[in-house]
Amino acid sequence: MTYNILAINPGSTSTKIALFEDDKQVFIKTIRHTAEEIGKFPNISSQFSFRKELILSELKQAGIEIGKVHAIVGRGGLIKPIESGVYEVNPAMLHDLEVPVMGEHASNLGGLIAYHLARELGPEVKAFMQTAGSFRRKRTVSVQCIVGVNHPALFVGTDRYASAQMCNDQIEFFVFPACRLGMHAGYAFLIQGMENGNPGNIRMSADAGKR
Question: What's the pTM?
């Protein structure tokens, strides 16, 4: 049986969606949002219906039947610290994303949209979040910013894990097979070492706490 998986990645100025048949990508689309469009909303959570309807519209235009999707996975938002990974969205996560207990970020919409789309499709469709934005670490956190500010130690690990894994697949590590370097480029540019999947020190190029 082939599983159809819809992936949703909300960002500050775009919403990326992709459809996979098992691990094969068969559709991808980046929906751009202008400053004027985003500026109409008082906060992130109020963008929920706006982005959800855009996603459904793009899928329809592409001839994709949403009813044939078996699972929906959203980019993990800022929830209370947990180990990184893939989780089925539950009421506790929804509460953290809606309140929001760890702060506002566009990625908070990922789990929310995935959950509500899945509920509309029926109980057999599952909703997941991939690599939550903030998670419990086994080591102490050290954050160094060029622009010095105090803000929570949040780790948005999805893209850094992906880039590190891609690099690991292409480069053979002879001496330190468990050590990797991950990078994140957004409003802030971060470089970070990882060991056995655990993030090390973070170097930030700008204040991500105010963005």
Answer: 0.71
Residue 15, token pair as written in the block: 């919403």
Which residues of the chain have a pLDDT value below 50? 138-146, 173-181, 202, 204-211
CA distance 114 to 125: 10
pLDDT digits (tens, 9 = 90+) for 81-128: 887 789 999 999 999 999 999 889 999 999 999 999 999 999 999 999
pLDDT of residue 43: 94
Strand segments, DSSP code E, in the chain are 4-10, 14-21, 24-32, 71-75, 86-88, 126-130, 143-145, 179-185, 189-195, 198-204
Q: Phi/psi of residue 41, each to 5°?
A: -105, 135
Cis status of the peptide bond prior to 100, with omega within 30 of 0: yes
What is the chain's Cα-based Rg?
Answer: 18
